[in-house]
Design a protein that fits this description.
Elements: H1 2-53, H2 62-93, H3 99-117, H4 119-127, H5 138-162, H6 168-184, H7 191-224, H8 229-256, H9 265-291, H10 298-304, H11 306-341, H12 352-369, H13 371-379, H14 386-406, H15 412-441, H16 446-455, H17 461-493
Helix pairs in contact: 1-2, 1-12, 2-3, 2-5, 2-11, 2-12, 2-13, 2-14, 2-15, 3-11, 3-12, 4-11, 5-6, 5-11, 5-17, 6-11, 6-17, 7-8, 7-14, 7-15, 8-9, 8-10, 8-11, 8-14, 11-12, 11-14, 14-15, 15-16
Length: 494
């Protein structure tokens, strides 16, 4: 009997030990899971350094360029983690795309935009903010670019970690400016260019919001508020798709094909008009087929906007890749040229392998870390459906395209989030206007209508305040951090 009791106690002890072991394994797996993303990111950064070394051959500053490539890869990862929300958040928030589908589409079009059409804005970042002639030597210029790249990457990494959709463009511009001031004083900064860029920071979110609101007004007035909604959608949805296709084609003709054939602005506009008409004709029977049998209600309209929304999200990813690859590889391209030739005053030449690192890093960063901020932009600012999300995506794409035409490193974060706010505030205004009319026509319900209208705040004010605060602090924070890093590098090497 005693032996049986002993065996029973032993088995209970073993069960408890196994239970503890199982709990320990579960806890270990839980702790290790968050480390998978950073671990894979570290592997990519190492590969980027090795990839860079394969193109350098043997020259005096090869180690410097490899380190710069590592910093550039790190920055590209953070761009993908933070800015992808601006491209795919609306489509995911409207349930037009799954998270996996959004990441795949964004990766393809981000890379295409970076590799085909990223050159002009890269030159602005590399040479337009800091006057290279103000630098004492090539080494001073290189250390300034290194500090700018690292500080911008660290700041965006911190913002992504806390869930704030900050501007990567602000980060890198602030980094370049801060390092230039630390290296050569305030005279090193091209203040005319900075003023132009600063103006674009104010204009771009306002323009993005205005264009998105106008598109939503058009959809509501021409489709949603019509008695026969399906017939109106069959007429106007192909037109909206044609506008989108035309804008994309014009942009690609002007920027993406310049390495093959040089096309002027007027010719690219004609090409865009032609392609837009072709897509309008193609989409008419497609939309008509989709509309067959649909009920005459708003819910049915969402089905017809799925394809336009997905295509507009892809367009936005292309434009974003063209515009924001500069944030990762602009300083890197300047470092490569200065290190190889000792020339840092003339126009920068951008090697293909530098663009590849930027494009791959953006795609890999959105794959590893993008979903967090996709949910913030897609779900937490205002409620989006297919039609509202389409307005956001198309507005953001058109605004980024115009900015890239002008060579301005505008913030895609400002544009896209501004478009989301534009849609939300337009809905508030439109709802208030309609409820006011209802209150006038039904006098006995006036108090109830007034109370209900006061509660119809369709944009989260807390997000509006926090996002504006993040935008304001990004440039000075990145600049201060960059200046400190430059001084540390200078003291370490002196």
């Amino acid at each position: 009997m005693a032996q049986n009791d002993l065996n029973q106690d032993h088995l209970e002890t073993l069960d408890r030990d196994l239970g503890r072991l199982s709990s320990l394994e579960s806890a270990t797996a839980y702790v290790a899971r968050p480390l998978v993303g950073p671990g894979l990111a570290l592997v990519f950064i190492v590969i980027a350094g090795l990839f860079a070394s394969a193109f350098l051959g043997s020259f005096n500053h090869s180690l410097i360029v490899i380190v710069a490539a590592v910093f550039g890869a790190y920055m590209a990862l953070n761009i993908g983690a933070n800015d992808v929300a601006n491209n795919m958040g609306p489509a995911v928030g409207a349930n037009a795309l799954t998270m996996t589908g959004a990441i795949i589409i964004a990766a393809i079009f981000e890379s295409a935009g970076a590799l085909l059409a990223g050159g002009d804005v890269v030159s602005t970042i590399a040479k337009g903010i800091i006057a290279p002639s103000s630098m004492e030597s090539v080494n001073v210029f290189i250390w300034a670019m290194m500090a700018a790249l690292l500080s911008a990457a660290l700041w965006v990494n911190l913002a992504t970690w806390v869930g704030a959709p900050v501007s990567t463009t602000h980060s890198v511009v602030g980094g370049v400016m801060g390092a230039g001031i630390a290296a050569s004083g305030f005279d090193a900064v091209n203040w005319a260019t900075m003023s132009k860029i600063a103006a674009s920071w104010v204009i771009s979110p306002a323009l993005g919001g205005l264009i998105a609101a106008l598109f939503l007004w058009f959809i509501k007035s021409r489709i949603i508020y019509k008695d026969d909604k399906i017939a109106a959608a069959k007429r106007w949805v192909p037109v909206l798709v044609g506008i989108m296709a035309g804008a994309f084609s014009s942009y690609l003709a002007l920027k993406g094909l310049k390495k093959i054939i040089k096309i002027d602005l007027l010719t690219s506009i004609y090409i865009g008009i032609f392609i837009g008409l072709v897509f309008w004709l193609i989409m008419r029977p497609v939309i008509a087929k989709q509309a067959a049998g649909l009920e005459n209600r708003n819910k049915s309209l969402k089905i017809l906007f799925n394809v336009p929304l997905i295509v507009s999200a892809a367009l936005l990813s292309f434009a974003h890749g063209a515009n924001d690859v500069a944030n990762a590889v602009g300083p890197l391209a300047a470092i490569v040229q200065a290190s190889k030739s000792g020339e840092y005053i003339s126009a920068v030449s951008i090697p293909l392998w530098v663009m590849v690192i930027g494009a791959a890093g953006i795609s890999f960063g959105l794959f590893l870390f993008g979903p967090k901020l996709i949910r913030v932009v897609g779900n937490q600012i205002t409620k989006l459906n297919q039609m509202r999300a389409y307005c956001v995506a198309l507005s953001a794409a058109i605004t980024v395209i115009v900015a890239s035409w002008l060579g301005l490193p505008v913030s895609s974060t400002h544009i896209a989030v501004g478009a989301v706010f534009g849609v939300g505030f337009f809905r508030e205004w439109d709802t208030s206007r309609r409820m006011k009319r209802a209150r006038v026509s039904i006098h006995e319900n006036a108090p109830l209508a007034k109370e209900e209208r006061s509660r119809r705040k369709l944009v989260r004010r807390s997000h509006f305040v926090s996002i504006i605060a993040a935008w304001v602090i990004t440039v000075p924070a990145a600049a201060v951090m960059s200046g400190i890093i430059y001084l540390i590098i200078g003291s370490a090497l002196s």
